[in-house]
Amino acid sequence: WFLDAQLRSDMTGLERDVITRLEALARHEDDDIRALALASLHYARGTEVQTRRFLAAALDSLGEREARVRARWGLILGYLGDRMRGEGDPLGAVALYRRAREIDPANPRIPVNLGLARADAGNLAAATDAYRESLAMDPVQPLTLVNLGIALAARNDAAGAIAAYRRAIALNPREPLAYFNLAGAFARLTNPDSALANFARAAALDPSLTLANYYASRLYLDRGNPEAALREIEAGLRFDPRQPEARAMRDQLRRQLGR
Question: What predicted TM-score, i.e. pTM, was given to this entire model?
């Protein structure tokens, strides 16, 4: 509660007695309490030289407890980064994920989240690097490959994006987002047959992914097939009937087909 409600990133005015109390708790025998105290200091005073020296000394003193405390400490900083990203502050989240990576450098989830925050901040090159760093640690991450593909596509690397989506599908043939984004890549390359096949697969695996039906419907319209377009848009609306654009499109197609 104290970490959540009372602390914020890089507090220059944090009271000395609070710092002293946190430093005492950072020597606690309980790994959870110790990690929370260290993470609190890292969060609130992580750019201050004296605090960084204290944190380095604390790491050196952990002995056989080091791996347990590091894992908890990194998890806490990652949670704070997630919260900051959810609040719409991707640059603040980047700073916290980087601190988490300092503490737990072998955790592949940290660079994934770092990449997501960098993408939110518009730095797609750095996001791509972070996803690749994570995949170097653990190559069996279908969703990380999907995120890599999205970043590559945004950088106009269509071939790299398609390769990433196909690697994700090879790892998990039931990952709908891989098919969905692969379909989008083929649509941008004006390959409607491949796009339609992959939109269909995405919708079959996850009926809540109604955008797949919507985009497939648009492709069928472009190809002069309003019957198939209506079938797709109605399939999406059966799952989620509240989409105004899809409903308008369905009504227009019904009028066009005399229904």
Answer: 0.91
